[in-house]
């Protein structure tokens, strides 16, 4: 995908201010890219080679074939070149030992900090308000006016919670799984995990991340009082919720890694 060309085509007739373009670019990048959840487990699997590859990976925005990022690559390889290309603002990579964000400097002295890996990539795919674009000199409510001017109309987490109504916990989880199938977060584990955690207080059961040596992720749920067991895993290129039996659940818990 030529993501740079897509942004160009979407902006060219919009007549947006640079600040509005910044907001637009941030949201659209969060919609397309996703966090590489393997990053959190390279230490567990002693996979220094993969960790280095993930952190140092170059992304060609004119030919993107892998939309996985971490904070370092999202800031350095995606947001910075897009903001540099489509606005007149100055950009500055802000990096410490463990985390990287992007500062964007307006001529009037306003500084925006962009941190897409605080949850904004799944939020954007669910059409929830992005929260990781902040400025110490601008009230968060001011972004509401920018979003309105751009034409962004967001859903809320409550909208998603109201979609679930069930008489028992197994049916509730089944309905959450059906909703997952209709969303854009189903394509990778990090976004799927955010979605499942959004409903966690309703499910009243422990859910944990499990994985094998090839970074195949599972999110297992045990409703032992109802004799119901579930596995959220990737099949046919997207994550879905599957109902499994107790033996299958125990086998996965025993053979997979959990952090």
Supply the CATH architecture of the largest domain: Roll
Main sheet strand line-up: 10-9-8-7-11
What is the overall pLDDT average? Answer: 95
| Individual helix count | 11
Strand content: 15-25%
Element order, helices and strands?
A: HHEHEHEEEHEHHHHHEEEEHE
The structure class reads alpha+beta
Task: Describe the main β-sheet briefly.
Answer: 5 strands, antiparallel
Tell me, what is the CATH class of the largest domain? Alpha Beta
Shape descriptor: globular
What is the CA–CA distance across the termini?
34 Å
**CATH fold description of the largest domain:** C8orf32 fold
How many strand elements? 11
Low-confidence regions? none
Taking Cα atoms only, what radius of gyration do you get, to the nearest Å?
20 Å
Tally of structural domains? 2
Proportion of helical residues? 40-55%
Features:
single chain, alpha+beta, C8orf32 fold, 2 domains, four-stranded antiparallel sheet, 11 helices, globular
């Amino acid at each position: 995908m030529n993501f740079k060309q897509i942004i160009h085509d979407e902006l060219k007739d919009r007549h947006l201010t640079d600040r509005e373009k910044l907001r637009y670019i941030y949201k659209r990048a969060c919609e397309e890219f996703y966090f590489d959840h393997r990053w959190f487990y390279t230490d567990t699997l002693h996979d220094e080679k993969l960790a280095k590859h993930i952190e140092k990976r170059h992304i060609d925005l004119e030919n993107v074939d892998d939309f996985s990022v971490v904070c370092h690559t999202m800031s350095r390889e995606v947001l910075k070149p897009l903001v540099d290309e489509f606005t007149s603002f100055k950009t500055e990579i802000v990096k410490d030992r463990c985390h990287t964000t992007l500062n964007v400097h307006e001529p009037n002295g306003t500084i925006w900090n962009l941190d897409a890996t605080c949850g904004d990539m799944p939020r954007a795919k669910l059409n929830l308000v992005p929260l990781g674009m902040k400025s110490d000199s601008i009230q968060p409510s001011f972004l509401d006016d920018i979003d309105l001017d751009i034409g962004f109309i967001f859903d809320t987490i409550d909208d998603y919670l109201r979609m679930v109504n069930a008489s028992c916990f197994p049916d509730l989880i089944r309905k959450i799984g059906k909703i997952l199938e209709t969303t854009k977060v189903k394509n990778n584990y990090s976004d799927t995990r955010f979605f499942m955690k959004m409903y966690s207080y309703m499910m009243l059961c422990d859910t944990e991340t499990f994985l094998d040596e090839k970074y195949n992720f599972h999110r297992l749920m045990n409703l032992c009082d109802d004799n119901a067991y579930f596995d959220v895993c990737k099949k046919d290129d997207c994550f879905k919720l599957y109902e499994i039996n107790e033996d299958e659940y125990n086998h996965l818990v025993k053979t997979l890694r959990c952090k």
